């Protein structure tokens, strides 16, 4: 990491020296990658990345260790599967603590939907909100809602502090809960409604991801079994 920061500072000096704009620096980086023969890692169609159960636990535990509010924020983001734009728009009046529901009023396409939450999360949110009955659920230090960019930064910072090496971003948390619910037996049509997907095929990719992971685990187990047999 220290070496990368050193390289980054050296590159920044070159950018400043030549007075390059943001768009120009993007072209420079793209050209440098091309010259080095670097390509983005290919991903199999229909397979999405997400946190493992161990990574998920470390992520949430680290968030609470950093700050109680951050812990609750990222737990809410993860367990509700909200898009980051929906999360930052969440208002106190959008939560029904008794019914354990989060009402997403500004969903994709302007459609409203209801998202269930656990009793423990509902209780924690109730304690956090206190006597407030209006305004942003999670207010920034400045008093207004957090920006989507700040939430993205929080997610990345927390994952790094938790020692998670893969790139973690808000939508990856959405991938995580979707896959987890499908794997636990929640009907795919209900997961579709919870996530606010217009098409079932969009939700089905998470089921395909779980199948792909299961196949990888099966292949690894069979390979280990074959190796063990060779040593008998």
Would you give an account of this structure?
Strands 1-2-3 form a three-stranded antiparallel beta sheet. The protein is built from ten helices and three strands, in the order αααααβββααααα. α4 crosses α8 (170-183) and α9 (188-195) crosses α10 (200-230). The longest helix is centred in the C-terminal third of the chain and has 31 residues, at 200-230. It is mainly alpha-helical and 232 residues long. The chain has a domain at 71-209: Orthogonal Bundle (hpI Integrase, Chain A), CATH 1.10.443. The protein is globular. 61% of the residues lie in helices and 4% in strands.
Question: What key phrases describe this protein's structure?
Answer:
61% helix, mainly alpha, 3-stranded antiparallel beta sheet, hpI Integrase, Chain A, 3 strands
Query: Approximately how much beta-strand content do the residues carry?
Result: under 5%
The CATH fourth-level homologous superfamily of one domain: Intergrase catalytic core
N/C terminus separation: 44 Å
Number of strands: 3
The CATH architecture classification of one domain is Orthogonal Bundle
Instruction: Tell me the radius of gyration.
Output: 21 Å
CATH class of one domain: Mainly Alpha
Give the biggest beta sheet.
3 strands, antiparallel
Helix count, DSSP H or I runs of 4 or more residues? 10
The secondary-structure element order is: HHHHHEEEHHHHH
Across the major sheet, the strand order is 1-2-3
């Amino acid at each position: 990491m220290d070496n990368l920061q050193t390289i980054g500072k050296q590159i920044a000096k070159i950018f400043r020296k030549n007075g390059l704009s943001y768009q120009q620096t993007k072209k420079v980086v793209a050209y440098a990658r091309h010259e080095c023969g670097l390509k983005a890692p290919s991903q199999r169609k229909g397979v999405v990345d997400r946190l493992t159960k161990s990574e998920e636990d470390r992520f949430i535990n680290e968030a609470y260790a950093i700050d109680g509010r951050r812990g609750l924020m990222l737990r809410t983001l993860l367990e509700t599967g909200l898009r980051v734009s929906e999360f930052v728009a969440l208002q106190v009046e959008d939560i029904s603590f008794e019914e354990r529901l989060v009402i997403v009023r500004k969903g994709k396409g302007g459609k409203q939907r209801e998202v269930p939450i656990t009793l423990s999360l509902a209780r924690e949110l109730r304690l956090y909100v206190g006597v407030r009955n209006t305004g942003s659920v999670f207010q920034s230090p400045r008093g207004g809602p957090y920006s989507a960019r700040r939430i993205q930064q929080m997610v990345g910072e927390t994952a790094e502090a938790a020692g998670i090496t893969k790139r973690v971003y808000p939508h990856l948390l959405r991938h995580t809960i979707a896959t987890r619910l499908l794997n636990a037996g929640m009907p795919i049509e209900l997961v579709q409604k919870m996530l606010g997907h217009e098409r079932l095929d969009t939700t089905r990719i998470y089921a395909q991801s779980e199948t792909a992971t299961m196949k990888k685990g099966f292949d690894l187990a069979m390979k280990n079994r074959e190796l063990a047999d060779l040593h008998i």
